[in-house]
Amino acid sequence: MKLEWSCSALEFKRPVGTSRGTLKSRSIYELALEINGLCYRAECAPLDGLSPEALDLRWQSVFEERLDQLCSREFEEVLLDLKFLSASFPSLAFAVQCVEAQLKNGEPGLCFDSKYSAGAEGLPINGLVWMGNEAFERTQALDLIRRGFRCLKFKIGVNFFGQSLSLLREVRDIAPEIELRVDANGAFSAEQAYRTMIELRELGVHSIEQPLHTNNDPELGELIRIAPIPVALDESLINRNPETSFDWLDLLKPHYLVLKPTLLGGFLSCDGWIDAAEKRDIGYWFTSMLESPLGLDAIAQYAAIRRSSKADVQFQGLGTGSIYRSETPLSYGKSLEVERAALWRRNIPK
């Protein structure tokens, strides 16, 4: 009982801005395990320049060597290495756990059973405004409002006062009732972040993700302590083991955590972060990382059963929509659809 891997290149419909530059395409890896005529598939897709296993220029050759090693062993042996994989190859750990979860359920594609996975309930999501010029961002925001989204997330950076602030004010005037979130991706200095957060407070912004760079814990902790609005940690969680991060969380005292299973080492690692967060009254939500439908489906199933019970955390960051020019449909008779500002898992008519 051994895994097999494959790789495909997906091209974005338009270049996508990330915290590590602009992407026009990306490689999507898949693991597959076939047993008794059933094929259990999972996505392992490191994001170039961000994922721990994708920082080196030649990361793909190293990654594929690891895949070859993984697929040469019995699946039961691979499961014994999950802790190592989670630390060094988190996207692989995520994929292995996806396959394991499907095996336990005995149904390809079903990682976690819930009303969401059964198609009886949608998962509330934010509408994401992709970075671009002011006209492009405005068009997106107005379209999301028209479609009924109750939470919008904006990417902001050092041009905040030159572009983003005026757009946020416009959006707030048009839709005073919706929740606004912003993500800085570590773009600011402590002084810039504080000035920005004062303006955001006046607009009733829900939170700001990762205002400072990840290597700046002392200043980040002080900023969180005096923060005009709540702070969520995202990239700061990369390469951290939740089991050894209790003192770190107690020192920084973030208001929220942003959990990305592909980036953090899968469901087991996220379980650890959730347990630590709940003991400290820290809210959290889940965010996808430009996965194809296969990876997004697994993350959404997990989010549906582990979402925060806190009243101020209703929306998940899973609304990427159809972002690639050509996406392989899910092979197990399901599709993902955004409807009524929620992500739904639907049966494909036969």
Characterise this structure.
The chain has about 350 residues and is of the alpha/beta class. The chain has twelve helices and 13 strands. The chain has helices at about 60-70, 75-80, 80-90, 90-105, 135-145, 160-175, 190-200, 215-225, 245-250, 260-265, 265-280, 295-305, and strands spanning about 5-20, 20-35, 40-45, 125, 125-130, 150-155, 180-185, 205-210, 230-235, 255-260, 285, 335-340, 340-345. The chain has a seven-stranded parallel sheet with strand order 5-6-7-8-9-10-11. A hairpin with a 2-residue loop joins strand 2 and strand 3 (about 40-45). Helix 3 (about 80-90) packs across helix 4.
Number of strands: 13
State the order of secondary-structure elements, H for helix, E for strand. Answer: EEEHHHHEEHEHEHEHEHEHHEHEE
Spans of 5+ residues with little confidence (pLDDT < 50)?
none
Rg from C-alpha positions?
20 Å
Helical percentage:
25-40%
How large a portion of the residues is in β-strands, by DSSP E? 15-25%
| Largest sheet, spatial ordering of strands | 5-6-7-8-9-10-11
Characterize the main sheet. 7 strands, parallel
Structural descriptors:
350 residues, alpha/beta, seven-stranded parallel β-sheet, three-stranded antiparallel β-sheet, 12 helices, 13 strands, 37% helix, globular
Topology (elements, then pairings):
Blueprint: E1 4-18, E2 21-35, E3 38-44, H1 59-71, H2 75-79, H3 82-88, H4 90-105, E4 123-124, E5 127-129, H5 134-146, E6 151-155, H6 160-174, E7 179-183, H7 190-202, E8 207-209, H8 217-226, E9 231-233, H9 246-252, E10 256-259, H10 261-264, H11 267-279, E11 283-286, H12 293-306, E12 334-339, E13 342-347
Parallel strand pairs: 5-6, 6-7, 7-8, 8-9, 9-10, 10-11
Antiparallel strand pairs: 1-2, 2-3, 4-13, 12-13
Helix pairs in contact: 3-4, 5-6
